[in-house]
UniProtKB/TrEMBL annotation:
CDD domains: LuxR_C_like, REC_NarL-like. InterPro entries: CheY-like_superfamily, NreC/VraR/RcsB-like_REC, Sig_transdc_resp-reg_C-effctor, Sig_transdc_resp-reg_receiver, Tscrpt_reg_LuxR_C, WalR-like. The keyword RNA-binding does not apply. The keyword Transcription applies. The modification 4-aspartylphosphate is found at residue 55. Keywords: DNA-binding, Phosphoprotein, Transcription, Transcription regulation. The lineage of its organism: Bacteria, Bacillati, Actinomycetota, Thermoleophilia, Solirubrobacterales. PANTHER family: TRANSCRIPTIONAL REGULATORY PROTEIN NARL-RELATED (PTHR43214:SF24), TWO-COMPONENT RESPONSE REGULATOR (PTHR43214). Coiled coil: none annotated. Pfam families: GerE, Response_reg. Residues 147-212 form the HTH luxR-type domain. This is Response regulator transcription factor. Residues 4-119 form the Response regulatory domain.
Length: 221
């Protein structure tokens, strides 16, 4: 079954370039395009894409506000496109519900693989990238926000996994530290996301820092 993709960018040449790349893959289907945030929201509801490629800087309504609306209303996953690595706006987009981000000048193969990963429910942030994101996120978005009540539903082991996950560790690295199998860690991560109502591990990282569960520079408890 094809992955339905909606392309949102205010530059027609950029949209055409993405479409050209994606249409060369049988498992990807471009179902529509949008040139601003309002069009993106409308198109997401009408076309029911699996993945939305979302430019951050767009007229009428920016990509951050559009991402927030789309992820609140629809099951579509949003993959943010940005010009600069770790652009400050990326953090706002992740907080709005985006499942990851790519640079606009990423190689075609990386774009295709990224869409497939996001559609499969994975976060498009490798552990090394997550660590960089954490460091920068902590710098521009201090921790200490309201602690979600849903955190009380986690078991002690799930708390252990969440803290390590928020440090940017991969499932294999978490399994090694806790002396558990990769499969067990994967199950714990799935339970954590379900209990906290999160889409993916990127959102778990954001929640852990904003709630003060994990503090930058301090080793996991």
């Amino acid at each position: 079954m094809s992955i339905r993709v909606l392309i949102c960018d205010d530059q027609s040449l950029v949209r055409a370039g993405f479409r050209l790349v994606l249409e060369n893959h049988a498992d990807l289907k471009v179902v529509g395009e949008a040139s601003n945030g309002e069009e993106a929201i409308h198109s997401a509801g009408r076309l029911q894409p699996d993945v939305v490629l979302m430019d951050i800087r767009m007229p009428v309504l920016d990509g951050i506000a559009s991402t927030r609306e789309i992820t609140a209303r629809h099951p579509a996953r949003v993959l943010v496109l940005t010009t600069y690595d770790l652009d400050e706006y990326v953090y706002d987009a992740l907080r709005a519900g985006a499942s990851g981000f790519l640079l606009k000048d990423s190689p075609p193969r990386q774009l295709v693989d990224g869409i497939r990963a996001v559609a499969a429910g994975e976060a498009l942030l490798a552990p090394t990238v997550t660590r960089r994101l954490i460091a920068e996120f902590a710098r521009v978005r201090p921790a200490g926000g309201v602690r979600p009540a849903a955190l009380d539903e986690l078991t002690p082991r799930e708390f252990d996994v969440l803290r390590l996950l928020a440090r940017g560790l991969s499932n294999a690295e978490i399994a090694d530290q806790l002396v558990l199998s990769d499969t067990t860690i994967k199950t714990h991560v799935a339970h954590i996301l379900a209990k906290l109502g999160l889409r993916d591990r990127v959102q778990a990282v954001v929640l852990a820092y904003e709630s003060g569960l994990v503090t930058p520079g301090r080793p996991p408890e």
